[in-house]
Amino acid sequence: xxxxxxxxxxxxxGDELTTGHKCNMIVQLEISKRGKIIAWxxxxxxxxxxxxRKRPDFAxxxxxxxxxxxxxxxxxxxERESRPY
Length: 85
Description:
By secondary structure, this protein is an alpha+beta fold. Helix content is 19%, strand content 13%.
């Protein structure tokens, strides 16, 4: 079905027509300078579905680095006070 649009308007994906249908067409524009095409303006590619990332085991990492050693709570305060900045 042809629906007249104002001059210069462009349908982009997601635009709703007067009939309530969505526009699924991809718009690709040519940008030209002095009659030569210098660029293409296209929509970004569709994002790939992301896989759930495996989270690191922080407790195992701390145990590997420090073992069963218990650190005093004022170690960080002492370290910060010892620096001139």
